[in-house]
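Researcher: Last one for today. Full complex below.
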Amino acid sequence: MATTHVAPIESDIAPQSDRVVNDLSIQVATVNGSGSQSSNMVLLRSLFQMGIPISGKNLFPSNIEGLPTWFTIRASRHGWIARRKEIDFLVAMNPETAEEDVRGLEPGAACVYAEKLNLSRLRDDLIFYPVPFDQIVAPVCPDAKLRKLVRNMVYVGVVARLLEIDMGEVERALRKQFKKKVKAADLNFKAVLAGYEFAEKNLEKRDRHVVERMNANTGKILIEGNAAAALGCMMAGVTVVTWYPITPSSSLCEMLISYMKRYRMDPETGKATFAIVQAEDELAAIGMVIGAGWAGARAMTSTAGPGISLMSEFVGLGYYADVPGVIFDIQRVGPSTGLPTRTAQGDIISTALLSHGDTKHPLLFPASVDECYTMAIAAFDLAEELQTPVFVMSDLDLGMNYWMSDPFPYPDKPMARGKVLDAEDLERLGSFRRYKDVEGDGVGYRTLPGTNHPAAGYFTRGSGHNEDALYTEKGELYVRNMDRLNRKFETARRTAPGPVIEGAGRDIGLIAYGTSHWATMECRDQLAREFGVETDYCRIRAFPFADEVAAFIHAHHRVYVIEQNRDAQLLGLLRLTLPPQGGEACRLRSVLHYDGLPLDARSITDSIMTQEVGN
Amino acid sequence: MATTTTPVPRKTNRIGLEPAAYKGSRSTLCAGCGHNAITERIIEAFYEMGVEPHRVVKLSGIGCSSKSPAYFIGSTHGFNAVHGRMPSVATGTLLANRTLLGIGVSGDGDTASIGIGQFVHLMRRNLPLIYIIEDNGCYGLTKGQFSATADRGSVLKNGVVNDLAPIDTCALAIELGATYVARSFSGDKKQLLALLEGAIAHRGTAMLDVISPCVTFNDHEGSTKSYSYVKDHDEPLGEVSFVPFFRDITVDYDPGSTTEVTLHDGSRLLLKKLEGGYDPTNKVEALRVLSESHDKGEVITGLFYVKTGQPNFLDLLNIVDEPLATLPESRVRPPKRVLDEVMESLR
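Model: Here's the assembly. Have a good evening.
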């Protein structure tokens, strides 16, 4: 079963009218820099270890300390792990946002809060659990400086007690979180216990939500998309990595550095079988990738939208000069200050057509951490086989949040290094023509700098070159080369990961890609259960779009393209590139989500049902 | 009647190659362009040093200067990249294959204006690269606008006067960490050849700013980058001689009047001191001399600064000796037990 497959999990937990088991969303509202990330990870991991499908999403500000942050945990016995808009259980720790957070809750929701915030006065349709955090933490942590950090562990204990989270799993999760820092782990667990004991003695359980052990997570791992992509890059045999720090992509290269230092040092010499360079900016990062890719290395960089913009010129050169390279775009909301720490799928069109002149680039769309890993490997193979820059379009939600997954598979085929001639090949052939399309797939043979053969060298330029890589400004030769690059794009259409299609024969088709997948799957369930609307589904995994995508669209009366941007960017690309066959314009409809938060199923369902009125 | 001719022995270098092996395609630059003279010296330097052509990799940005890598060592790889960004392409290339001998050719616009960001960081990294600025103080390919190395008061053909002080790329390079920094003149064959040979023997960033007049747009009266101006104002720091490592030549010199610098491959630079002496290993001294030359309106040339034995960027990265580009799969794809170990840690 693919890691991206989601189907309602049959659970043997008997429904009881007074208890809602393993189906809730928890939101913890804190101030960033207060150590709450550790507390939230302990909660998330405890539930994961109890075998309950979970997801955890960190909604954080562009700030180091002092601004509001929210962590949303969803536990779903059905296996739905997209964000849920409705909060069942709020932990209100941040005085600044507490009132607004409470006002946003659905009637009947529960709220654990710092007693001194006096929140219960705000609503009479909620279940309030006041907790004197300061009084509880003081005896546990005499060191006043540490208290601010340890204080947040108290709510872990309170929530564990109220939701019946197994305290054995809480301790295991906490010790995993603190790794070798035993003293810190001991101190923090004391705070958890203090919270648990307080709740046991003082709080009467009045809400309906509880958790119970199940076994949906056997063998599974918990990892962020950026770490998964980093692992994929290492296993892909990357040798040159250049990067410039930018949220939300930095952790990809930082994880890669730690993996490579551990696993990619030459055992004989103790030297690195890689070079990782923090460049002065994204222009330099991509320039180094182009230089290294040209010289034959498996080279990559990782960035976000602003970096993609800066890389534009070099990517065009890579396209025109047939230079491989892999670029990760961990997408986020737009430019400059404001929402750089919020998620989006907003770089689709700009990246697909990045640069000046006639350019277009293969894009891969991972939906899961498993695909962050496998598509990283696929991207390097594609880039070298196609001799062109290839983009992996992840996003903040996938890259920076923890996701459950089956363990990643070891690569089942050798590295595909593409059409490279060495000195022996040249000795046999006598010569080669760099940009000659020998096999009709649009990809010529190349040699690497340093090849010890008189016929090896060639001069690389941007737009003006003939098949022998000699300078020319002749229009007909330019056209011939551009047509070859078009054939190469057709090769990409055949060789890039194809779509995953579920269902056939219904009137309505859904198209989604990347992280929109998870909410889309849950939306299909909602449409079927609540409205009796059955849908087929096509998850696009790459641009250029495989032929099956066009076939899927043509086979459906109405197709909703679900994406996380304002301008229906993938739908635009579909319209731009699909073979003309009447009716696409009326067939294709949009479901758009662009508030910076991860997409949820209810938003899609509402949008589709609104558009379905009168078909 | 039969005639016998004694074959003229062919001129070859130490690895048996003729000068032609170091030539490239015909220059398309203007007749008399200083850049062509520099190209000739580059050819001569690689020939004299007996460098295997395939080991050389040529890189450039955009501009008249950046076309010139096509005009030397035509048999090897070259990359005419984008404007001002050659340093990053050169860096990537040498990361991928540290056994290459990199030579980057840039111009004053390509380096000091659009490319100043990448130039600065290249110098800072001390990447083993020969970096040549073919410096004519103007943008030739877009018809003669001022660049950032134009001197204050220099006049364009259309009468426009440059009001801003020039960026001294040599002073910048010294300040930032380049380990071989020189200025020369395209018309000074002997000095430029010695400096280029020294650059080939050096292992670190060798930055050569070569004044190279633009005969079409910046060779008139009022220009400070014209042939006549540079000839009149050229103040060599002292005579530079180069003794390659493979020539067992004993040079007699007075140690009081000559500084000898032994380079990475064992070659030696002999720098004849002028009155007052000059120590090319002294950074502060180098910057002082450059600053004073500006005040005096002189075009000072020679090797300003050299530091041998400084770890270069590739050394600092602790990369394996072989090219990363062609490491076999067995050395770059960890075995399954590594993946298993990582997976286990994530459960």
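The radius of gyration of chain B is 22 Å. Chain B touches chain A through 59 residues (CB under 8 Å).
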